[in-house]
Amino acid sequence: MKANDCASPTSICPEISNRVSFAVEGNIGVGKSTFLELIKSDETLTRLVDLHEEPVAQWQAVGGNPKHNMLNAFYSDSTRHAYTFQNYVFITRFLQHHNAAMNPKAPCCLLERSVFTDCCVFAKTVLEEGLMTDLEGAVYHSWFNPVLQTLPHLVPDAFVYLRASPQSCYRRLCIRSRTEEAAVGLDYLGKIHDKHEAWFVHGSMPATITPTGQAVSCGKLGEDLDGTSAVNVRVLDGKHSHAMLDGKTAIVVDCDAHLDNSGRALLVHELKVIFQQMGVFKC
């Protein structure tokens, strides 16, 4: 997937660039912040990648007012605030990703999570748990798809899935000790993990990268990952996530084994090799 293979600018927003965009996905506490710090610490990657971290600060202070902590409200009373939170999260992601597309600063845009995170994982989970009513779920989906169809540049060109067991995520969550996440338990992390696995593992096929930079499937749907590699390339099947993601590339990173100090150098090296093969940039 070379930069010039990306979707052309929309008629609505003709200024949008054709650079390559990646979304970093993964469970709560999987190590997204650590992963992004690795990107920042590498001279090649930091020069060629424009990073956009998740807008958590906006959720903790809606409109800049810390008294309006939407993140805390959701975790304190999920039934009351589930829809409001998911709605606000989408708006903040949408604005962040749209602004990133309108103001390119590097050949590659790296987003901490995407608008599909909620549709495929978090909103889906709260709906299944009964924290969002069927009516609220119907309202959510009634505007989600039309917005994406109108603004297709919100769809990332590829994904980086940071994969770790719920137990590992829970340990990291306890170390991070974010106040709003005190109520997040291992059971909830397990459900979020399962949604990510359905999206990026069970709903994908092993792939190889061709000399032209395209990721081409070379195995069966849901086939196990190569456990000997820090990084695996997959191709998504949109029927198991979202139609607009069909054929998108997913880079699955083993964070259980390679996000500690001893494995970080290998992880960064393998990522740079894959980015180079995809034609994102020359390392």
From TrEMBL:
It comes from the Eukaryota. Residues 22-204 form the Deoxynucleoside kinase domain. CDD domains: dNK. GO terms for molecular function: deoxynucleoside kinase activity. GO terms for cellular component: cytoplasm. Pfam families: dNK. This is Deoxynucleoside kinase domain-containing protein. It comes from Cymbomonas tetramitiformis. The lineage of its organism: Eukaryota, Viridiplantae, Chlorophyta, Pyramimonadophyceae, Pyramimonadales.
